[in-house]
Design brief:
This is RNA polymerase sigma-B factor. Pfam families: Sigma70_r2, Sigma70_r3, Sigma70_r4. By secondary structure, the chain is mainly alpha-helical. It folds into 3 domains: 31-123, Up-down Bundle (Four Helix Bundle (Hemerythrin (Met), subunit A)), CATH 1.20.120.1810; 126-186, Arc Repressor Mutant, subunit A (Orthogonal Bundle), CATH 1.10.10; 217-277, Winged helix-like DNA-binding domain superfamily/Winged helix DNA-binding domain (Arc Repressor Mutant, subunit A, Orthogonal Bundle). The chain has 11 helices and no strands. The protein is globular, with a radius of gyration of 22 Å. The termini are far apart. The relative contact order is 0.07.
Length: 277
């Protein structure tokens, strides 16, 4: 009989590439519940009341994760409440944009959205051009109203809804939004992405830009959109003005989701070329 010690030694995980031996990010408690809620959200596309309730449950479930990510930026001079609101905006965008058919867990989609919103918040730290003081003072209130509306309704507000919430005329709201866009001027040569990524901001032009859905002055796009073929124009309108997912668009126009993704990429590149001329 073999009497040697057969105790199994603890397994030492292999070191990550680049010397980063940190443990992988923990999945939040209730991940299984979240996946069920996301599946229910996709299954209730025509039941807005049910979708609103499901979004609320997802927000409650992932709020601790957003708070944790926001706390990582707490020593940079910004109020913690502001950072939390910025992170919640990323959460709502993730809930609205996630598609279970991608085959990836929700948290892998959520974290880049939340950290991206926080990084964008800190990147916008100086006014690039002279802006009336009243607009500078109202920018913080505008951001707060957008974040609260998005958290409550699961979508970004329209210009009219923003004007009503801030007790302003629509024209004055458009001026405020235009002024807020002057908050920073970015060089096309500035680093963009993670610390070990050598890409510059200019390298990203031509890719699918999620911020296009936030364009307020839609009239500036009208002529370019009118010149698009009917199918391409419909896909763009459904995605950026109808807040539809690629899966929903594919079902509406009778194409595969992959085909819709290619059409969006090609059409957005064409629109950028026309708008930058």
């Amino acid at each position: 009989m073999n009497t040697r010690n057969t105790a199994v030694r603890p397994r030492i995980p292999a070191q990550r590439r680049g010397g980063d031996n940190r443990p992988p990010a923990r999945q939040p408690a209730g991940t299984g519940q979240a996946e069920k809620l996301l599946a229910a959200l996709a299954a209730n596309r025509k039941n807005e009341e049910a979708r609103e309730r499901i979004r609320g449950e997802l927000v409650e479930l992932y709020t601790p994760l957003v708070r944790r990510e926001a706390r990582r930026y707490r020593n940079r001079g910004e109020p913690m409440d502001d950072l939390y609101q910025v992170g919640m905006l990323g959460l709502m965008k993730a809930i609205r944009g996630f598609d279970p058919s991608y085959g990836k867990p929700f948290v892998a989609y959520l974290l880049p959205m939340v950290t991206g919103e926080l990084k964008r918040h800190f990147r916008d730290t100086t006014w690039a051009v002279r802006v009336p003081r009243v607009h500078q003072e109202k920018r913080g209130e505008l951001n707060r109203v957008i974040a609260e509306f998005t958290q409550r309704h699961g979508r970004t507000p329209t210009t009219k809804e923003l004007a009503k919430a801030m007790d302003m005329e629509v024209e004055a709201m458009i001026e405020l939004i235009d002024a807020s866009s002057a908050y920073s001027a970015l060089s096309l040569d500035m680093p963009f992405g993670e610390a070990d990524d050598e890409s510059a901001l200019g390298d990203t032009l031509g890719g699918v830009d999620g911020d296009l859905e936030n364009v307020v002055d839609r009239e500036s796009l009208k002529d370019a959109l009118d010149r698009l073929p009917e199918r391409e124009r419909r896909v763009v309108l459904l995605r950026f003005f109808g807040n539809k997912t690629q899966s929903e668009i594919a079902a509406a126009v009778g194409l595969s989701q992959m085909h819709v993704s290619r059409l969006l990429s090609q059409t957005l590149r064409q629109l950028r070329r026309e708008l930058l001329v």
